[in-house]
Amino acid sequence: MHEEVELTQAEAEELATRACLAAGADPSSTRSLVNATLSAALYGPATLGFPHMVDYLNSFREGRIKGDPTPTLTRPFPAFFVSDADKGIAQLGFDLAFQGLVEAARNLGVAVFTQTNSYTAGELGYYVRRLAEEGFVGLAATNANAMVVAKAGGPAVYSTNPMAFGFPLGDHSLPLIIDQASSATAYVNIVAAASEGRPIPEGWAVDENGMDTRDPAKALTGALLPFGGRKGANVALLVEMLSAGLSGGPWSLDTPDFRSGEASPAVGLTVIAVMPGPAGDDRVGRAHKQALRLQDHGVFIPGVDGIPFPRPSSQGLKMPRSVFEAICGFFSA
Fold it and tell me: Which residues contact 77 (CB under 8 A, 6 or more apart)?
């Protein structure tokens, strides 16, 4: 077992804020990233909370993220918002467009946000969870640098190309959130396995020679496999078109590594907000009943796991000590 550090939510927020500012993020970027990190830590996969923040902090320091960006937002159609993140974090551009996106979706029934020129999007479930909190169904897609082969033995052509879907289930209930990669596993899971020295399941990745491997270190120099073979590769292509294609951002084949070098990945992100039916139809209540019905049948409903929503501020957060010390290192040196 790895030693963990437990913090109150206020302490975790202060820790993240100090580290972001020390790493070179301006106050606006800091606030957006801290909010997204806390949301992931509270409701999303543990690896996409504070452990992934270390990637952001390193990227601020090493120049892959612009610390003081000036995102621009245009609206070429009434329900279509186009953002250029100016090499900053994806969450900041989304925050700046969020109110307009919500208002457009409420008035028109559907609205689209698409963005290019940002660092990787982080926990993709965060974007649709934000929409679900406002009562909207959400769909999000993003890409990054190529690390997934379309078939075993082939070259890496896609990122893990995740997509996320959210459906609100009413007040005081977590929304249904599906957030998954097009690859057999998320890249952060390979990184975590490598850092902990544990093998990965067969079928997750290949080594640099295109051979199946259970060694995460060899997987990091090789490539990930798509889930479900060709069908997973098709989903990766769908996400590629929604994110890079719709936003005008770089294809995964042309995207710099988000964990090394000085170049911004400049990737694409697309988020779609949809009203769940006209007023009075209570499609949300109907969906909640169906989720409970499926649970009675033994079906796992992602995101609906008994966690109070919102979680009480008195409930603490845990993170590996190694992650805590890495974050502290940005402002204690």
Answer: none
Assess contact for 328 and 197: CB atoms under 8 A. no
Summary count for the chain: helices (H), strands (E): 11, 14
pLDDT tens-digit series, residues 236-287 = 999 999 999 999 999 999 999 888 899 999 999 999 999 999 888 899 999 9
As a whole number of Å, the CA-based R_g of the chain is 19
Burial class (CB in 10 A: 0-12, 13-18, 19+), 280: exposed
Strand pairing class (317-320; 148-149): unpaired
Q: How confident is the model at residue 48 (pLDDT cuts 50, 70, 90)?
A: confident
Rounded to whole angstroms, the Cα distance separating 197 from 193 reads 6
DSSP state of 208: T
Could you tell me if 166 and 284 are in contact, meaning their C-beta atoms sit under 8 angstroms apart? Answer: no
Rounded distance, CA 68 to CA 48, Å?
23
Nearest to 18 by CA among 37, 43, 1: 37
CA distance 111 to 275: 9
Distance separating alpha carbons of residues 220 and 218, to the nearest angstrom: 5
Omega cis (within 30) before 310 = yes
**CA neighbor of 112 nearest in space, from 147, 144, 85, 75:** 75
User: What's the burial of 142, exposed, middle or buried (CB within 10 Å: 0-12/13-18/19+)?
Assistant: buried
Stated pTM of the model = 0.92
Task: Please say whether the beta carbons of 179 and 125 come within 8 A.
Answer: yes
Residue the block writes with tokens 């989903």: 235
